[in-house]
Amino acid sequence: MQRKIAEELKLDSETMALFDKKDEDDDFRGPDQGSRDVITSVSATIYKTLMGSRFIIIFLNGSDDEMDMPRFGIPTFQEYDNNKMIWTFSRRFPTVNREYSDIKDKLRHTHLSSIFNNGGNELSSSEFCALLREEADTIISRHPSMTGFDTAMAMNCCLYELFLRYNFHTATKFGWVSHASNYWLCDGIIQENIAKSISSALQQEIRWDCDDSSLDTALEEFMKEPPFMVVKDDNVYGAGQYHWISITSKDTEVSSMQSIPAVTSSFFLTFETADDSKPKALPASIFRHSSNLRVLVLCYCGFDFASPPFLICHGLKFLGLDHCTNDSTCERDQHVDWTALSSLYVLDLRYTEWDEITSQEKIALMYNLQELNIVGFRCWQHYARRLQGQLPCLRRLRVVKPTDQADISTDIANSFVEKTQLEILDLSGDTSMETIPNSMSNVDSLLVLIVDGCDRLKNVIVSDGVFPSLTSFSFDGYGPTYHWASTVELPPKEMRPFVDNKRDIKTCKISLKGCARLENLFLRQLPNLVELDLSGTAIKILDFTSMVVEVSCLKRLFLLGCKQLHAIKWDNSGSTIKPDLELLCVDTRSRSKYPQLFVDKNKSPGFLSVHAVIVDARIARSLYALIEKTSYHVDMNIHVTSSTVYSEVESEGTYRDSISQLRDHVNMQQQDLRSAGQYHDVQLSMVGDVPMQSFPLPPTTMLSRHIEIAQGSHNLESELDDDSPIPTLAHLAKHKAESLHVHDLSTITPLPGEQWRCLKWCRIERCPKIEIVFPRYAWNFDRLETAWVSDLLMARCIWSKGPSQYRGSFQNLQHLHLRSCPRLQFVLPVWVSSFPDLKTLHVIHCSNLHNIFVLEDGDYPEQITVKGVAFPKLTTIHLHDLPMLRQICDVEFKMVAPALETIKIRGCWGLRRLPAVAADGPKPAVEIEKDVWDALEWDGVEADHHPSLFQAPVHSRYYRKKLPRGSVLRYMYGACIGPCT
């Protein structure tokens, strides 16, 4: 709605682009199209554009509710201003005899309402035709791509659908309207060359809403010369030149009709009979003038199958037979000409046991047949051999609810050879089929595959690449759909069974891996389904409230190579996803092959593993929704990156082994990255062959809840935002991650703040634009054990200063390692009186570092400001190339390290203080340049801060060369003018 307003106002392209961005973001958030909100900034732009202007809005409101227009940016309407809005309620397409009093009761801001009840007695014939023409023109204008489709065609399509709506047969329970596009084509209303491209759009546009009780009266009033005639109950057929005729009759006289008029192109006949009575025979002469007949539907009729009376209709395109029987007593021609079958586009057989019509001889005649539907007779394997090499134009094949069992001896290997145009294959209700036959691998053009109600299917496994064009798949445990549409799409919800028939569906695995175009999916009531593999598909939103429902035993879900995946909706209201889910594997990168993961069948229940490589960080919202709702133990290994470092998994063991191999492979790749780093060649050694320990290796062992954020990831800025109203990657990292690895990012965005409840180790490296790693409001790092930071070229601090809400932060910190952060001024603000578990401190190549630990601004207790901050377990300090460092801790407090064993210092020329140590303990070993050692300042023995409390220092054999005073040129000039010998 808001987009339409913006388009009418011709707002700038930058504003219009916000709609696409918002739609994409909403895809990741998960709300349905009808639940999406307005864009506030666009509302403001619309308001500024209209404010101060005089305008009138004509609004076709498609709902029955009054709209809150100011939310869209429309200024409020007052009775005294010059701006007006005229709007209509309910649907755009004509509605017959609708009661509008309920709508009037909902009006709150409407100043004048006018209710026009367009019942049959309110419209003249000319007015109705004018209205219909206007609707037809509107349809065409909204679809400029409908080339070759004019107003007359659109009007006839509308009228034909009204005819079908009026023609609904309670006796057959068949929804004729869903077949509308077939009838438009077969009746000749639209041409074959444009039918495929416009049928779907037309069926969405043409939706008559009729009150059945008053439709008869309405049609009599405003259609003086209707193109169709519908005879029901005890009505008598009135002679006329009707193009479309439908008759529901209780007698064989067909309501006094002797024969179908020559002008008639569509004819529907239903004999109403008792449930146990025999269908009535067709009158012998009914088709004698039907040379123009193109659509024929017969329900509960009897005729001689050996000599059908309609074979004289040589232009027949659509033949539908519902509950028809063979009546050999009918008059029979001596010579039967079956060539009329050659003109058929659609053959629809429902509960009509006429096997001869599908014999190889008859099938061979139907070379123009595009659709074959067989319901309630033989299984599809029965027809497989007959179809071999036949029906080259076949696009839709449905063999539904068979009453017999398959003959396993039947050779069906080549049954779909040469079916190069087959788009829909529906085998619903086949209770004998146990696997999807391999013969279907020849159908490269298949778009829709439906196996609803196939109870005995053990596994549905589609080999990779078998159906390269498949876009839709349906497996409904409730059973076959009641009706189907003739368009290339899955049956809509209203056509599906709504009562569970308690079928015992045996399927335990469904794999549609490699169906690269698959985007529509419907799975329901599959109580034994354990594994679902949708790897390599084009699914955008996997919805467990509408697409995959009632799969309570689902344990494993694979979505590898799903590069178009935006969201997974886990809402349990319709899916009954219980704590049985054990494994989720997601990878949204493009990939040519997929890992073979083997499942550990001995794995204990109540344990969920989530393994994901996601390119767009917004998918983390879906992962968080699952992990947060899971009440039992969860392992997660989530990589936010587009990098191909994590290559394909090729394993031969159990699932647990394969995941272990994946981790080992990632660790090896990371070691390679590290060894090729900027400072891999630095050798930190001291005099006397006493080596200075190299910079420690980074933590690589992924903990049970691991997150990695790396190069190529999209939308990190928004997803690391703490102010997001919905849970994002920031919430997943803060609340769930035990190990965090961030590297090679070009973003300036810091990591999220607030509580970090679970983090045990953190590794940050090669992020050249980050200025602050953790903001001032990040706290609760009470489980953090290792912090490893490297190559942050712009970082000024790791943890920013600011009031801490939790004094227990860093109480478990054991290892702090920093390398190559040239602008770093300090590392960690001191919020506590002690770092009780810190064991090692390594800092190298941080040229601007003044202090490692600094005090926050504010009041501190005496044990910090007077007694200092204790590091009771600190054993190792390595400092290298820190020219600005004067002391490890801020000048306002001292550092106490009673357990210190080793301190190695090199290139820290400004260092003036070392930590205080224990006077009665072992003396720490010291490696340090002599100049630096001699310049150190001491508080004295009584303060446990004296050179005698350390071992004799080991000095480097290398010293800084003394630089000349003054300029180099002056020094060289003095040397040149000296005395000559």
From TrEMBL:
Domain named Disease resistance protein At4g27190-like leucine-rich repeats: residues: 796-914
SUPFAM superfamilies, per the entry: L domain-like
Database matches in Pfam families: LRR_RPS2
Domain of life according to the entry: Eukaryota
Positions in coiled-coil regions: none
Protein name: BPH6
Record organism: Oryza sativa (Rice)
